[in-house]
Amino acid sequence: MADKKSIEYFTFSQYREALEHFQMHYDIQDVIITPTEVQPKGKPKSERVCRFCGRKNDPGAFKSVSHLIPEMLGNKYLFADFECDKCNQQLSKYENDLAYFLGIFRTLFRIKGKRGIPTFDSKSNTVRAKDEDFYGGRAFNIEETSDQYKSFKFDKETGSCTITYKKHGYIPINLYKILFKIALSVLPQEDAGQHQRAYQFILSEQKYDWVAGMCKIVYFDLPFDFRMTLPVCYLFKKREVQAKLPTHFFMFHFQHMVFQFPLHYNIEDIRSGLYQTGEVDLPFCPPILYRDPGTATCHSEIRDLSSYEKMEEVQQMSFGMDPEYLTQLGAMNPETGEITGIAFKPDEIVRMVIYEGDEKPEFPKFNGRKESGS
Ligand SMILES: [Zn+2]
């Protein structure tokens, strides 16, 4: 737990009022930052109790390692000692939907899961992206894999390049469940008992009527400068027990994405009649930043994740380059290093290789001699 009093934080100027409003009603209860070092093992297996299904006194039911935040998001060391193997197996099923929702970003940001940095293939295999060694430097390699050549669009005047492709379909309710599961996992033990209905909801494949209309999140799309390289969870608790508001709010910051929602179905909130009055007017917490964003802005939207129908979305990636610089581009033969007279044709881009600033690839040096067969 981070010392919340010692942290100075900011938000985008467009949300300053919203943050003040939210802070009037909610306190930060906990901030969980994904650790980069091995953590203590937790309770012995014989003493473990599953938070989600209540299983206990059964060390054999806690054989596998349960990640508190999915490993596919880069969490290597934060484990849950309150999740049995059966629940772990059931809840892990939703991770595919999360992966499909994220699309290319785990590859672009080099997030190491169980099997390293994933290779991304778009739906219908039009675009493939992978992390690879290119002339001695680690690079993000993205290429057109269909023969349609429609995915890359390059504007020579502005220098912007946009890559468009379809993500694999995800089921919105499963995305909601996996996010909710992370929220339920960071609850302190003393508050965990209030959320029995939510455990039932996320574990079951049954469609509950009382869930309809409540599976909404606020999703923020931040400029890449404000991304968090490892996931950060924020848990908020309402200041006044009597307030007609959900007791807990959760915010999850992963890379440039922030997901935020209240923890509905809390038994105390249900008992207090919170859900009897129809739609509750909820405050929302804007993204929390650790430096002044100045004039930077961010996009946000409310997403209703209540559907059980597969959703297919188009994703776009854009890069900007200095158009002035582009006029000086030359073509190099990658095998010999020879600079050729071939003009740069933006309409014919089929592959881009992008290095991070600190990578030092070594391209072949042309020695002036024509190699045979090159
Ligand atoms: Zn369980």
From TrEMBL:
Protein name: HNH endonuclease 5 domain-containing protein
Family matches, as InterPro entries: HNH_5
Organism of derivation: Pedobacter kyungheensis
One Pfam family per UniProt: HNH_5
Ranges of residues in domain HNH endonuclease: 50-92
